[in-house]
Amino acid sequence: MSNQNKTKKILFTSHVASFQKFNRPFMRMMREDDWEVHYASMGEEEILDCDKSFVVPFTRSPFRLSNITAYRQLKKIINQENYDIIHTHTPMGSVVTRLAAKKARRNGTKIIYTAHGFHFFKGAPLLNWLIYYPVERLMARHTDTLITINKEDYHRAKKQFKTNVIYMPGVGVDPKRFKPKLTAKQKLELRKSLGLKKDDFVMIYPAELNKNKNQTLLLHVLHEINKEDKSVYLLLAGKDNLNGYHKKLADDLGVAKNVHFLGYRSDIPQLLQMSDLSVSASRREGLPVHLIEAMFAGLPIVTTKCRGATELVEDGVNGFVVGFDEEEFARCVKKIIENRSLRESLSKESFKSACNYELSYAQNKTLKIYGKFMQEPLRILHVVTSMNRAGLETMLMNYYRAIDRSKIQFDFLVHRDKKGDYDDEIRSMGGRIYHLPSISLAHSMNYNKKAYRFFINHPEYSIVHSHLDSLSALPLAAAKKANISNRIAHSHTSNFDSGLKKPIRNVTKRLIPKYATDFFGCSNEAMEFMFGKRAAKDGIVINNAIDTSKFTFNKKTRKKIRKEFSLPDNCFVVGHVGRFNYPKNHEFIISIFNELLKQEPSAKLMLVGDGENRATIEKQISDLGISKSVILTGVRSDIYDLMQAMDVFLMPSRYEGLPVVSIEAQASGLPCVFSDAVTDELDVTGNCIFLPLSQPSDEWAASVINAAGRHKRKKCTELVSNAGFDISTEAGGLSNLYAMLRRKSRDHAR
Predict the structure, then answer these.
(1) Helix/strand/coil percent split, the chain, to 5
(2) Where are the alpha helices (DSSP H) in 280-418?
(3) Degrees (nearest 5) of the Cα angle 436, 439, 442?
(4) DSSP letter string, 48-97
(5) Which pLDDT tens digit goes with each residue over 570-616?
(6) What are the chain's domains?
(7) Which residue of 184, 254, 276, 298 lies most exposed, with the fewest beta carbons within 10 A?
(8) Above 60 in pLDDT, residue 745?
(9) Which DSSP helix (H) or strand (E) runs through 745?
(10) How far apart are CA 323 and CA 305, in angstroms?
(11) Under the phi-then-psi rule, with left for phi > 0, alpha for psi from -120 to 50, and beta for the rest, what region is 49?
């Protein structure tokens, strides 16, 4: 695709061109998404995967006057090119870039800086703190997003720098580089090419030869080992920046025959697979890629105790972490050499840990960051029955409120003529609402025609997201016919109502995989039920996230709501929120509460919601003579406040997907009692009890009282957030998914 068709521009900068190896996957990703990609560096080597490259005389030292020239030159480039995003790397490269981009930033250019390990850290020389810390703190003011790749840097920057700080575990490693794995024959051939034998023990350290990487320590370690074992070899793969210092040291120590200075190599994955042990002697790291690559190769690791490396290597689990002592280092290496079972165990754990650092994760997170700066919103069409106050509708609105609407917009295709509870709010946020007739299987052909006509008349939608459970097959079939490339089926339930429609729904749900391209669900259980195990295997769980800040327990709110309903402070209140329908099992709630009153006569039951079974439940309440003890609030918009007044949350549902109210109840600090028909995936606070529906109501009542009695009300929002149910973070993840789907559709179109 020609540059003239690319409307968005991004500039990557680093003081050395060799840093492009970290950026190339992201550069390719952006080009595939129709961005024009530029790169600025010293230009000591060719820049690949970009549309235009610039040679700028950056220098590593902050005291070189050539950085002034670099500043002027880069400023001119930035002002001429009018970039949407500038993503800068390396300390001096980033300082010069951010200074040069000050004017552009005022005009809307977004500046992202990835810190690959600050020069100031716990244990760093005082001079580093005096020089680099104040500079980075000052430059953070000229940065829109600062990406840190280790937790020490993240926590320091988050606390001390005035900018948006994000933690990303490294730049990511593509596991495909390690596939296919070398066969035993290929390993032997590669060893032979290096003059190594099959039974030689091979250590490898792929890193530039410099003082920080500290290869000197490894040569002394090898000297110690070779006193007893001459079959141990060390591979040093990397450019020599010390003019042969290490080769001379190897000669002086008498280990030259056991050291292979390989120089720069492009076959590191193969060399790793051929080796027995990955070693690292670094004094300072951000999050070392060479160790992550070693983990993907399934190698045990021995590393010095430095920032970054300690995040990757758990001592005694996937390797050993040692001090800067050659004898201690040598002892750990010998231990691995002599104990094959230990080596195999460390190797297994090393590979297992590698999945946390896959390139795809870094790409997705980077795309999420870039996505904040996209200009045109991507419009998502949600297909629903109506937008009234119910579980899935509330979930959608939570995401809609929290999502960056300058980048992502929600529109709704509803199947009711009556105005929905959320319609006004949707329109106020820029959303559009369209109507189709109610879906009827008896009139499915007519519906298909109307749905197809709708999609043809609205080509702006490349993503259709259906929430109609088994009936999603119908609108998605029309969307497929209209060549809409991304068709999402979303399951919100793990069962169907019993009755005449159930067999029909069981049939229609089997049609969904024929028409859907992607499968979402509120839980794994819900996806398997709706789509089958094969389709659900590649499905994505979209958490029923909430605004946790609204549910934080507040004594003042509790007092206010209790006053509204004339509830004494010491009154025991059992709460439930849900539509009065078959799945929610209200008749059993009433039965449980009736038994509970025998032990707690002053207790109250608060039922929030409405629905087709309300009259039946009201009669049951009346027949039992407990009307004065039951509060029927009807539909309310202040669920977060009502939950403050409750003491325990009760939900003996016949089936559920993953009800959003269960997360809301936990966020408000309530102990919860659920039926075991509800997935245990929802227990994120440890305050949940699951009981079988076959258990008598008096035993349920006792469990409800016990749950409240042993639980002290406390703030649980952090637990809910950490479990992935805070809308402020989950909304970004959903945006990222939509952006990835859009990119996939563009690739398909090309």
Answers:
(1) 50, 15, 35
(2) 289-296, 309-312, 326-338, 340-354, 359-371, 391-402
(3) 130
(4) PS-SEEEE----SSTT-THHHHHHHHHHHHHHHH--SEEEEESHHHHHHH
(5) 899 999 999 899 989 999 999 999 999 999 999 999 999 998 999 99
(6) 3-167 (3.40.50.2000), 175-357 (3.40.50.2000), 376-541 (3.40.50.2000), 548-725 (3.40.50.2000)
(7) 184
(8) no
(9) helix 727-749
(10) 6
(11) left
Amino acid at 376: E
Compute the distance between CA of residue 658 and CA of residue 660 in angstroms, rounded to an integer.
6
Q: How far is residue 188's CA from residue 206's CA, in Å, rounded to a whole number?
A: 20
Structure tokens at 590: 């009433």
Amino acid of residue 292: I
Q: And the tokens for 5?
A: 């068709």
pTM for the structure as a whole: 0.46
Place of tokens 């109610």: 438
Q: Which of 658, 399, 398 is nearest to 528 (CA)?
A: 658
The rounded distance, in Å, linking the Cα atoms of 581 and 493 is 14
Residue (of 212, 206, 62, 63) closest to 124 by Cα position: 212
Mean pLDDT of all residues in the chain?
89
Write 45-51 long-range contacts (CB < 8 A, 24+): 45/17, 45/18, 45/20, 46/17, 47/17, 47/20, 48/20, 48/24, 49/20, 49/24, 50/12, 51/3, 51/6
Instruction: Show the tokens assigned to 377.
Output: 């919103």
pLDDT of residue 633: 95
- Please state, in angstroms and rounded to a whole number, the distance separating the CA atoms of residues 163 and 161: 6
> Tokens representing 84?
């949407």
